[in-house]
Structures are given as C-alpha cells and as structure tokens.
Design goal:
Blueprint lengths: L4 H17 L12 H16 L6 H12 L2 H7 L6 H17 L8 H12 L9 H20 L1 H4 L3
Helix pairs in contact: 2-3, 2-7, 3-5, 5-6, 6-7
C-alpha cells in the first residue's frame, strides 16, 4: 500500500538530519584502544615476515597464520580506527591468502598494492608515532611479499 508523501515527511526529515550530522567515514581517527589493537596486529604481521622462513610457501603460510582472526578484530575496532587502517590490514591479509593459494582471491598482487596505498595514508602530524612506524614497516613487508611472489602471480 502506498503512503502519501506528506506522511513520509517526518521520516525523511529524520533521515536527512542523521545523514547531515553523521561524521564522514574518512574523518574517523584512532580512538580508545583502536591504535593499540591495530599496532599489536601490525607487530604480529611484521614479526611473521621477519621470522626467516626457509621457503616462499613457508613465508606465505607464516603470514597467513599471523592474519588469522583479522576479520573479527577489525569488527572489534570499527569506529575506533580510521578506514585506511582497517582496509590496509584487510587488503594485506587478502593478498596473503591469495599468495598462500586461496582460490577466492583473484588478484593478490593488487590487494598488496591496495594495502600499500592504505598504509601510505598514515601521517606523522595526524597519527600516533607507533602507528606511523608500523605503517612504514607494513609497506616494506607488503612490497617484499609482492616481490617474493611476483613470478607466481605476475605482479607488476
């Protein structure tokens, strides 16, 4: 049954106020424990890359293990971390899954490239020092992971 337009006006006004008053997603910054949780996960990813695995497959498996549980963790820090931080980890771990053999990730090289772009949004003047340091390290890890797997997936 169709409602006449005047009956929808209060709902439309409420919706308009909610949309206009909402904080844009890109404006969210680290709040509460968001930076601590993000930096701790970053440290696990970096440590996995530095663990000196003996083969490419072992390296990918080690990183995949470090990514375990990332989805739930990102839900936990939702609203407490900027979009670039969460999407950086998400893209990084999707790339790792692809390099580790997941058939669901079609372009792991592209995922790593996205992760590098997201981590590059960290700014010393805007973010905590440990976040900026971890972001720089993650960029290097993502670049190294792409290079290590380049012949498998034709990374540019």
């Amino acid at each position: 049954m169709r409602r006449p337009l005047p009956a929808l006006r209060p709902a439309l006004k409420t919706l308009a106020v909610m949309v206009l008053a909402a904080e844009p997603a890109y404006a969210i910054d680290f709040r509460g424990d968001g930076s601590t949780i993000w930096v701790e996960r970053s440290a696990r990813l970096i440590a996995a890359a530095k663990s000196h695995p003996t083969s490419r497959d072992q390296y990918n498996a080690t990183l995949k293990a470090a990514c375990s549980g990332i989805g739930g963790e990102l839900l936990k820090i939702g609203g407490s971390a900027p979009i670039w931080a969460a999407e950086g980890h998400r893209a990084f771990c999707r790339g790792v899954d692809g390099f580790a053999g997941s058939p669901f990730v079609k372009d792991p090289c592209g995922e790593m490239k996205k992760a590098i772009g997201y981590y590059g949004k960290s700014r010393a003047e805007e973010h905590p020092a440990d976040v900026v340091k971890a972001s720089g390290s993650l960029i290097r890890v993502a670049e190294m992971t792409r290079e290590l797997n380049a012949d498998r997936r034709r990374c540019n």
